[in-house]
Amino acid sequence: xxxDKQLARGETDWKTSDSGLSIFKWKDKRSVHLLSNYxxxxxxxxxxxxxxxxxxxxxxxxxxxxxxxxSMGFVDKLDQLKTYFEINRQSRKWWHRIFFHFVDVAVVxxxxxxxxxxxxxxxxxxxxxxxxGLVAEKIVSLKRKRDNSPLEIxxxxxxxxxxxxxxxxxxxxxxxxxxxxxxxxxxxxxxxxEWTCTICKVPLCLSKTKTCFQxxxxxx
Length: 220
Fold this sequence. Notes:
Elements: E1 12-16, E2 22-27, E3 31-36, E4 44-50, E5 56-62, H1 63-71, H2 73-84, H3 94-117, H4 123-141, E6 152-154, E7 157-159, H5 162-165, E8 173-180, E9 192-197, H6 212-216
Antiparallel strand pairs: 1-2, 2-3, 4-5, 6-7, 8-9
């Protein structure tokens, strides 16, 4: 193919094989490469491009690129979601980059399917749930200090991941300072208790008449 410097804006270089496979190199601001077994290299369309002075000009563009732009929406969406929180890192081993890429693609696809089930959730919160699910067993097995507990404060209510909260084998009640119960306390009717879960660090009522401690660790 011609070198980038040999192509002016709007020019296309192409080659075809005996089996009808065509490769295109179209020069816009940068070179764009496309491969097709369907499009005729002689078919062109016109696209608008802005110059530095603000004026618009007509630029010739291969038909294959126009069809690609009309049909590539989902591929573009995948790349967009993947770049937000991707785990891809530089590595001396080339296959690491491929592995990281497929992990990111798997998480994005899982997020899309999860939303189709019906629950609305942000991409970041979904990734947090995935992480919680992977490390929940380790978190529960360790008796964390208060500052390092899985507790998060959100809208003045304690929040603990489902994976940690429902793994009840290591959760035990302990006494602490009197705080509002995470289950039954409301702004109108504030209920305070001195009982706290030693794993979740969440205040919960524990008495003959209330089952907040049991409810918190058994109901999703």
